[in-house]
Amino acid sequence: IFSNTYEYKNISLYTRAPVPAPVDALLGRVYNTVMSDEYLDPSQEFEIYLTGGYKEYMFLAPFCAKAQSCLHPVSHKVFIASSDLDKNAVYGRDPAGKPRVLENVMVHDLVLAQMQKKLGFINYIALRAWLKEGYAEHVARETVEMEAAAICGKRDKSAPLVQYLESRLMLDLVKGETPDMNYPELIASNIAYDSTRKRVMERNCAR
């Protein structure tokens, strides 16, 4: 299915159709960001598959049907549903919706891949989702230009960025309170969701 391969250091990118423009600049930015991850394993190899749309994506990653991208729980391969390398964009099920930034999506999932390898499958699965997503977003910084108040009010469940923002703000709050701990140490404590979220909501959503 994926007849084209592009390699940059420890990242292999697989696509169905040839890519008309060089991808080294994009993959270089992804690589440099992932190398700053505190769960870094320099020997880890990454595989990213840009699928031909949601139908093919659902076949390859049925366990991530509601997401735009997916980290395979066993192989650590990353699948992205609908994307455009030239535009550095990832699209949702509605093509008219606002696209996400492709390199940020790649970084997010590669950080999760590093966490899963470092922690081991059982420990990774046992870790609360907000800690995993919050840390991946801390590295990817896809929500960095969003206002914190975006977490308040009604949400579009098909758009993950507000949830990522909330998880990052929660992690930032706890990290600010424990400056002597690094992120792996902090995350290993598997902090409760409800009480931390309540404090973040009170801080950013007070009327």
Task: Give a quick set of tags describing it.
3-stranded antiparallel sheet; alpha/beta; globular; 5-stranded mixed sheet
Describe the strand arrangement of the main beta sheet, using strand numbers.
1-2-3-5-4
| Number of continuous helical runs | 8
- Mean pLDDT across all amino acids: 92
Beta-strand percent range: 5-15%
Name the shape in a single word.
globular
Give the CA-CA distance, first to last residue: 53 Å
User: What characterizes the major β-sheet?
Assistant: 5 strands, mixed
The rounded Rg comes to 17 Å
Q: In percent, how helical is the residue content?
A: 40-55%
- How many strands in all? 8
Set down the secondary structure blueprint.
Layout: E1 4-8, E2 11-15, H1 24-34, E3 46-50, H2 54-60, E4 69-71, E5 78-80, E6 83-84, E7 89-90, E8 100-101, H3 102-119, H4 121-126, H5 129-140, H6 161-177, H7 183-188, H8 193-204
Parallel strand pairs: 2-3, 3-5
Antiparallel strand pairs: 1-2, 4-5, 6-7, 7-8
Helix pairs in contact: 1-3, 3-5, 5-6, 6-8
